[in-house]
Each structure stands twice: as structure tokens, then as C-alpha cells.
Amino acid sequence: MLLIDGQKHEVTVVRRRPQLVLRVNGRDHEVRGRSSPGVGRQALVIDGDSVEFVRAAAGESQFLRLYGRSVEVKLADVRATGANAGAAQDSIKAPMPGAIISVHKAVGETVSRGETVVTIESMKLQTALVSPRDGVIATIERTLGDSFEKDEVIVSLEPLAEEA
Questions:
Q1: Strands (DSSP E) along 5-134, which ranges?
Q2: Tens of pLDDT along 8-31?
Q3: CA dist., res. 41 & res. 26, Å (int)
Q4: What is the pTM of this model?
Q5: Are 137 and 113 in contact (CB under 8 A)?
Q6: Backbone torsions φ then ψ of 14, nearest 5 degrees
Q7: What pLDDT, on the 0 to 100 scale, is given for residue 45?
Q8: Taking the CB of residue 156, how many other CB atoms lie within 10 A of it?
Q9: Over 90: is that where the pLDDT of 46 sits?
Q10: CB under 8 Å to 39, separation ≥6 — which residues?
Q11: What domains can be seen in the chain, in order of their start residue?
């Protein structure tokens, strides 16, 4: 997940060879390097169009100047928006309709915050559903191949023994 001027964008590497392909917000883009046109400048070819930019780093942020506009880019931690985000969340819900393509945990197993529990697929886009907090898998409502609707509970959590 990238934050560009505070707005979240899903970015996934689809493939690296023979050309880099990135999926940005569900749309695939082929990306190639191109020789730089001047000092400090860089260039990429994205879907056949040349994009020239200047990049500077400051702390965890990157600043890009492109198309006459400056933007701040930084990685977003999808596991949390605050120190205790998800601490009281007892379920993992489907963010979109789809189907289960992989189950990584079983009922009774402990799971850490941010750890993948199941992988889903929706419109050929694979998404890992991660635990919002440390806990124990109480139930897994769907199995491999099962379909579901948006906001349906896929996994329920219970507190770790020392938290109860």
C-alpha cells in the first residue's frame, strides 16, 4: 500500500520479467526504465508513455516532481493505523465478494497481528486477509473454494490465554 499525498493506493508486483508489471488499484501497468534526460532527472516508460520525474528522499517519505506537480509518497502499514488498531477486533471480514483460494491457519492455532490467515480471490485479484490482532483462531467460516459476499465474516478470533 502506498500513500500518495495522503491517499491510499494498492500496489502489487504482478511480475518482474521479462518486463516489470505493477497492479495499481486493480489495473496492470508495464514499467520500464529509460535513460535520464538531465542531471537529477529520472524517467520511466509506463504503458508505452514516457514519464519524467525528479525524486528526493526525506526520512520515510519520497518526494516526486512530475507533470509540474510535487507529491509525497510513502509506504503505508496496512496492518495498523495506530499502535492498537484492531486490538479489540474479533473477526476478519471479506473486503469484497470472492472465493477462498488458500487457508494458512487452522482452528485453535495462535496468530499474530498482521499474519496471513486466508487468501481470497476476487476478479482475478488475490488478497491476503490478515489478523487484526494477536489471538487464537476460534472459527474459520469458509473452506478452500467456498465463495462469500462482501463484509461476510470469514474468520473469528478469541483472545490469547494470558489476555482472557
A1: 7-9, 11-15, 20-24, 27-34, 41-46, 49-58, 61-66, 69-75, 91-93, 98-103, 110-111, 116-122, 125-130
A2: 778 888 888 888 888 888 888 888
A3: 28
A4: 0.48
A5: no
A6: -85, -45
A7: 84
A8: 16
A9: no
A10: none
A11: 2-75 (3.30.700.30), 91-158 (2.40.50.100)
Closest CA to 103 of 133, 134, 148: 148
| CA separation for the pair 1, 24 (Å, rounded) | 9
Cis peptide before 18 (omega within 30 of 0): yes
Mean pLDDT of the region 66-86: 64
Beta strand 147-148 pairing with 61-66: unpaired
Give the C-alpha separation, 126 to 117, whole Å: 13
Residue type (1 letter), 123 = M
d(CA 101, CA 122): 10
pLDDT at 137 over 90: yes
Task: List residues bridging with 62 in a β-sheet.
Answer: 57, 73
Q: How confident is the model at residue 40, as a pLDDT?
A: 67
Closest CA to 4 of 82, 63, 66: 63
Greatest distance between any 2 Cα atoms in the chain: 61
Q: What is the three-class DSSP state of 145? A: coil
